[in-house]
Records
---
Amino acid sequence: MRRMNFSAYIPTKLVFGAGELSRLAECSLPGKKALVVISAGTSMRKYGYLDRLCGLLKKNGVEPVVFDKILANPVKTHVMEGAAVCRDNGCDFVVGLGGGSSIDSAKSIAVMAVNDGDYWDYVSGGTGKGMPVRKALPIVAIPTTAGTGTEMDPWTVITNEDTKEKIGFGCDLTFPTLSIVDPELMLSIPPKFTAYQGFDAFFHAAEGYIASIASPVSDLYALEAVRLLYKYLPVAVKNGSDLKARSKVAWASTLAGMVESTSSCTSEHSMEHAMSAYYPQLPHGAGLIAISEAYFTAFKNDRMKRYMKMYEIMTEKKSARPSDFVDALVFMQKECGVDNIKLSDYGIGPDDFPRFADNAVNTMGGLFGYDPRQLTNAEIIDIYSKSYK
Amino acid sequence: MRRMNFSAYIPTKLVFGAGELSRLAECSLPGKKALVVISAGTSMRKYGYLDRLCGLLKKNGVEPVVFDKILANPVKTHVMEGAAVCRDNGCDFVVGLGGGSSIDSAKSIAVMAVNDGDYWDYVSGGTGKGMPVRKALPIVAIPTTAGTGTEMDPWTVITNEDTKEKIGFGCDLTFPTLSIVDPELMLSIPPKFTAYQGFDAFFHAAEGYIASIASPVSDLYALEAVRLLYKYLPVAVKNGSDLKARSKVAWASTLAGMVESTSSCTSEHSMEHAMSAYYPQLPHGAGLIAISEAYFTAFKNDRMKRYMKMYEIMTEKKSARPSDFVDALVFMQKECGVDNIKLSDYGIGPDDFPRFADNAVNTMGGLFGYDPRQLTNAEIIDIYSKSYK
């Protein structure tokens, strides 16, 4: 019998559905003053999301304080700066509005707003000191992308600019208290990013399904996420205004976040984090897509039944061999127009592979322990090499 | 598109698996003194569960105070009495060890230990006053049966002896903080009760799946619970020492509790509660089984696709018509040796049906609102009549 001993814990209150953002005006919130964390980009203002959010908070008797410096690959400097703004303004809780970068930063700011020292004192992995986090402000997550799943997991991925470490971190206190997932906020995402983000979600689910700590509860979430993304991600990429497809993709991404809370990503995520730590212009999802065929091919004989099960759930066809899953994955990438990502376009070259491999193992080595089997350094470099176009 | 707007909230930390009870000696617990609530029966002592639990608590630095008066259909008097014991002893949290009756009582005691007045002041439904519950002691649930799912939902069902009302009640504060589901504690359940309890879980899932508020998340839990119970409940009934079957049934029951937290039971549960409010000797599961064929037949044309889907998940065969599900349900009851429950054995007669129908609507009328369509009083009586043997 495969692992029937497991634990599960997701204390977040999830509100899901088109139009549900408006609930923010009436629902119970954990305080009267909120730090609203958004990216340094223009979209939260351009699409009116920030104004709408602040209006709803005010209607609920909550004063918003906006912190708008977060980068696409969020950095420790802004976590520390946001925490200072939070303290200086006496905020009771932190709202992350936007993609994973804003919500992850909100989580890390919620920790540093009430803890002394440097953020890296609390991070475990790499040069982080791994001190225990005993308190944090409450967190409210409002994703405007469908990819990270951070709204239903405790994880926050922040880059230390000095050490070039991009590390995932989290504890019970970094689960959002409340997450509102409103697919209407995702209608404006361009096709390419819809695909990058959707594949990020897909890999959270697929990695979590082949991980050594997969459990009966994470399997439920993972297979449903994989099924929905195979069916609806190409639709959402081709027609971004299809609210049904956006809703299905958003729900799949949230489910994949639940996989991250109950199972784990595997080393594909460590390997990608190493890439985007050195090349911050590389979108996380694009990096994952680029290495995915070689990555999943590497384990196809180690989780044969699970590869075949994913293929069957995705295509509703019988699987004859584990590589069917890899073929379906490549087909799905073609359908989404992201089957030809060139790492060289981002400046990445073969010389990078050994340092990527070292960085992946040194900063997020823990995830290699959840792989179906232990990869050698040569195999890791080989996956990067095969992914280089 | 079927209901894509929904919310989900299950803040309980679940620890699942054979042998996991021993974790109690080391895990973080919400205080230093615990009221341990068990039934008035002998089994918790006979099988050594109580001693083991108290030993593990002590090892973890927690002093246990035992309250051992809970009846199979738990009553308000014992909730009030347990709350007084809890207060008098200065307990920090409440542990429910046993079947649903003990855990439900632990939840209600956790409420009344820190709130004034009578328990029925807080119950909503029937003659309850529905006052809001703003605080409760933390609750730890340790089920020794697989049926109620109470370890993963906020519900507690208590009977008011004076008014003959058996009412479900719950709020965010009555979710257990921690639930340890250890199938080893279920090995000693006799076949008949294994079946009664397993069918209770089955109906939580099946009702939650046909309920008008079923959602994408409750559907995931419900279909998996229904699938596992169809496959493994007859095995667990026939060979109670089969730990794999016990584990699968326990997990299905926990999943069905998650259905109760994310969807709802329908009126089958109201109708059964009316029966066992008047006839406390009738086990809840036996009452449900007795009315289930007539009950599910009544809605077969209102949820055709969902009936067929349940049949297909259960049997791995294509369904031709919704009544296939009812046939599979009856087959499963035969396999478990519970297809011939005689209500007359419990003293129930046709004269009871009108007062059952009134009681069901008056005390738990809310669940009728989640039915696939509104039942008339005549239809309710007809379901009771068809179930009478």
---
Amino acid sequence: MTLEPIARFHAPFGENFGIPRQSGLVESLRGEIRFEPRYRQSEAFRGLEGFDYIWILWGFDRNRRESGSWHATVRPPRLGGNRSEGVFATRSPYRPNPIGLSSVRLERIDPDSCTLYVRGADLADGTPIYDIKPYLAYTDAHPDAAGGWTDSCAWSELQVVFPEEVRRLLPEEDAATLQRILAQDPRPHYQNDPDKVYGMSFAGYEIKFRVDTPTLTVISAEK
Amino acid sequence: MTLEPIARFHAPFGENFGIPRQSGLVESLRGEIRFEPRYRQSEAFRGLEGFDYIWILWGFDRNRRESGSWHATVRPPRLGGNRSEGVFATRSPYRPNPIGLSSVRLERIDPDSCTLYVRGADLADGTPIYDIKPYLAYTDAHPDAAGGWTDSCAWSELQVVFPEEVRRLLPEEDAATLQRILAQDPRPHYQNDPDKVYGMSFAGYEIKFRVDTPTLTVISAEK
């Protein structure tokens, strides 16, 4: 089966750095779904405005291995890279068919441009999107479902020190969202160098920070 | 993006007739996911046994329109075919990229054949499967999410008359599952002819029934 992108995702990140590891982890994070010209028909979205959440089926286009190669096991970042699980027991991007699945909150639809405004996504800027579906709680929601190995290893969040003189440079909503992103530990896996200065672009700002686990300290924010 | 099937679904139906309209509607319905030879590696499923539910990403291969064609609106069977909604506001198979998404209960994994035994699927026999992912309640479950137009039109189930002399021909579990399938109204949309005898193959039996709405009467079951 051949899939053609129907839309692209637009995220407030300059690169992959900082993207939440799953949808919903940073609920306030804004994003936009912009459709390809041939799908910009407002009738195609009729009725969608009544749904709180939508599914996005998207392509892991930045994480693709050589075509056709796959590995039976992966080392989830959540397990600190020390343990491996079967690829089908994880949401890893390194899978036989690199399709991502994310539920996001639908905030608003612009009927003229057919842009969907969403919150809580875990997609990089420019990600190709292959399908949008309404979220149906009666068939999609299993709140008490056992989550296997993920149930016994909660994320440990970082404590974020965000000095007031840096924080006030950003609009309040962006500052609050940034704090949630930083608490999720955006460092590449398994790094721990308290002297290293990390840079991350977010919402038009270049953010610099250091991490001395479990504390992350924001150093600067520049336009 | 080109997708290759990693597995096929095996359902107890002889053809499309009787397949539930969404996953979970017939919770007891059994099915099997049988992997292609190159994916039959037990390590690829390590850790999956701890999850109650899995996602299946699959192909609407029996409902495909001519390649490249799409319609902005569809008439959901749930609305009786009288009203149309935007294709992206429905789970219709007739969509730009014909990928289906279903959460099913994972009952058991056979480690030798790497077969997954599931319940509650809405897939036809032979359906190609492109990905299997673990269901993660913390990111996938939104039990209170508003469901737009679907919230105001509950399925009206049929009342099933299943005479004891026919029912006892089937194993009890199959009979109970069949009753749930028939209650969902497996007729092609918008048909209502009380004299018509419908046939459906299920679990090795050829089932015959009539429908005089809101009552469905099972006539016979033959091996």
